[in-house]
Specification:
The complex is a heterodimer.
Chain A (H helix, E strand, L loop, with lengths): L3 E2 L3 E9 L10 H4 L3 E9 L3 E2 L4 E5 L5 E9 L15 H17 L1
Antiparallel strand pairs in A: 1-4, 2-3, 2-6, 3-5, 5-6
Chain B lengths: L2 H6 L1 H9 L15 H8 L3 H10 L7 E3 L1 H10 L7 E5 L10 H14 L4 E5 L3 H13 L2 E9 L7 H12 L3 E6 L4 H12 L2 E2 L5 H21 L6 E5 L4 H12 L6 E7 L22 H9 L19 E5 L1 H15 L9 H10 L7 E4 L11 H10 L3 E5 L9 E5 L8 E2 L2 H14 L8 H10 L4 H13 L1
Parallel strand pairs in B: 2-10, 3-4, 3-6, 4-5, 7-8, 7-10, 8-9, 11-12
Antiparallel strand pairs in B: 1-2, 9-13
Chain lengths: ~100, ~475
């Protein structure tokens, strides 16, 4: 069964430069890994399964190829978890200003 | 298309993509005609004000931070504690001052028949270019450095990708590395779009309105120019454009202070360190290299030349900026930043050196949102092994910990030795022009480009000769 059909909004992936092709000036740790890229577009192939090399039309109309990664990709960045270390700041600031007012 | 093959065509590709023949401004030795470049390729201030009005940019409010001022006075010597104001640039379309920086490029691209614009940026600038392109009906591609090799993205950059897409742009995301430029050049060549570079005269001229507005608004509000204007400094454009605008308004006495987040020790192109930092811009990792060699940017001659305009350069630590971001929310009732609050953290400390009747202006704010907020950024830091501590921020080691100040008295700017930075810049000028005999024009140029004088430059050259 296929994962995506023509016209689906998908995310694709490519390796731009292999580790061995990286620029001479990059630090050692970066030199060990490839330069990778991600982009999104409407699937042009009739159908495809995850991992297939597919062609897409990007939102502005460019045609590019890459490995199919996701269908209907979405963002899940958020307001993060509670950071209890931050809690003192507001109380501290308000207390500092209140103390001052009594003296004025 | 090999890496070196594409890179060797860099100048030719760039000339088409920005439409500027930089050779016209080159002079024989080290120098080039900066003023002529700004004058001939830019637009005049009036034209820029008009065109920015068309896309609803500018006239952002000046807010007096009365409670933060009061707080600063608690820690200042008697009679000290300048009034702190902020220019609320978050109220520009796309949520930051970068709308100004993008506007002129996009306007110019449209006027000259380009079908689209491309920008290489992981920050607010991408959103600004995408937003301006949306208004003028141009296509837009943003190229981002977003992920490390584990595929983990900085939450702030991921948010920026979302915002660019919201404005109808295509966002191409990459892992860490300077070869982003290679992908960028290939895209310019493939599409024939305009390079909305951060560093062309268009980009910098667009920011002049910010400095100009500050002067005009203070004359109206307070009947005088501000004493100090603090600008967050990375690539140097924010500071350069603002200072030029202040000068154009005749506010030459306003001191311009650059502020960067101290990220000493972290390598900007390192895959393993990429997600160890909680600031993606406004930090020393850009601030220092771009001040000491501005022409490292994507265009042959950068219009952002911070040393030309900087009176003082200070750093603050990540923990101090996060604390001030909380202070802005908890005391002034406005959520902004965090990255844009770098200059606010600096201003809080600098205000304590100035008399109470002085005026210090933080020249920007930026929008806040999911991913781009103190909470997700600190959650992310923890997940990447960075410890969050409460103590003395001057003990902070970038990449290892973030130290929130025990109380506001621990928020203290650190001065960078501007003469040392100027010397590095002059050294780089020599290094990049090895067979050149230094002429009187070069001396004049270096003096202007470092905001010093010919004697200073001569002394430095002598020192360098003896090293």
């Amino acid at each position: 069964m296929s994962d995506a059909k023509k016209g689906d909004w998908v995310r694709i992936y490519n390796v731009v430069l292999k580790a061995s092709e990286r620029a001479p000036q990059v630090p050692e740790d970066t030199k060990k890994v490839p330069l990778e890229m991600w982009d999104k577009g409407y699937l042009i192939n009739d159908e495809a399964t995850m991992g297939d090399i597919v062609e897409v039309e990007t939102y502005i109309g460019r045609r590019i190829k890459g490995k199919l990664l996701e269908v209907n990709p979405y963002y899940d960045h958020s307001y993060g978890k509670c950071v209890p270390e931050l809690l003192y700041i507001g109380r501290q600031l308000r207390t500092l200003l209140e103390v001052g007012d009594e003296n004025e | 298309m090999s890496y070196s093959g594409v890179m060797s065509r860099k100048n030719e590709i760039m000339k088409k993509a920005v439409g500027i023949d930089y050779d016209k401004f080159e002079e024989k030795g080290i120098s080039f005609d900066y003023d002529e470049m700004m004058h001939r390729t830019g637009y005049n201030l009036q034209e820029i004000i008009e065109s920015q009005k068309e896309t609803s940019i500018g006239d952002t409010p000046i807010l007096e931070l009365k409670n933060i001022t009061k707080l600063a006075r608690k820690f200042a010597p008697k009679g000290k504690g300048a009034r702190i104001f902020v220019k609320d640039e978050a109220s520009n379309p796309s949520g930051s001052y970068k709308a100004r920086r993008a506007a002129t490029s996009v306007y110019h691209a449209k006027k000259n028949g380009y079908k689209g614009v491309i920008a290489a940026t992981s920050g607010n600038y991408g959103a600004a270019v995408a937003s301006q392109a949306a208004m003028l009906g141009l296509k837009c591609i943003i190229v981002q450095e977003c992920y490390d090799s584990r595929g983990v993205g900085q939450p702030e950059i991921v948010e920026k990708a979302r915002k660019c897409e919201a404005y109808g742009a295509e966002v191409l995301q990459l892992t860490v590395g300077p070869e982003l430029f290679y992908t960028f050049l290939k895209l310019l060549e493939e599409t024939g779009y305009f390079n909305a570079s951060l560093y062309t005269p268009f980009g910098i001229a667009g920011i002049e309105t910010l400095g100009y507005e500050i002067a005009m608004q203070f004359r109206e509000l307070e009947g005088r120019d501000p004493d100090v204007v603090v600008a967050t400094n990375a690539g140097g454009g924010n500071l350069t454009g603002t200072a030029r605008g202040l000068i154009k308004a005749g506010a030459e006495d306003a001191k311009v202070v650059g502020a960067s987040v101290n990220l000493k020790g972290l390598h900007m192109a390192s895959d393993t360190q990429f997600n160890k930092k909680s600031f993606t811009t406004g930090h020393t990792g850009f601030g220092i290299p771009f001040a000491t060699w501005p022409d490292r940017s994507d265009v042959p001659r950068s219009a952002a030349r911070p040393l030309r305009y900087m009176d003082r350069y200070v750093t603050v630590n990540q923990g101090e900026v996060f604390y001030m971001t909380e202070a802005l929310a908890q005391l002034e009732g406005i959520e902004r930043g965090p990255a844009g609050n770098t200059s606010l953290a600096a201003a809080f400390s600098l205000a304590q050196e100035l008399d109470e009747d002085k005026i210090i202006v933080v020249q920007e704010t930026e929008y806040t949102g999911a991913g781009k907020h103190i909470q997700p950024q600190l959650s992310f830091a923890k997940e990447n092994g960075v410890k969050i501590e409460i103590g003395d921020p001057s003990d902070e080691v970038p990449g290892e910990n973030i130290i929130l100040p025990k109380d506001p008295s621990y928020i203290k700017v650190k001065d960078l030795d501007l003469n040392k930075i100027r010397k590095s810049y002059i050294k780089n000028c020599i290094k990049n022009n090895q067979d050149v005999k230094i002429s009187d024009e070069d001396l004049e140029f270096l003096a202007k480009d470092t905001k010093t004088n010919v004697e200073f430059v001569r002394e430095i050259l002598l020192e360098l000769n003896n090293e």
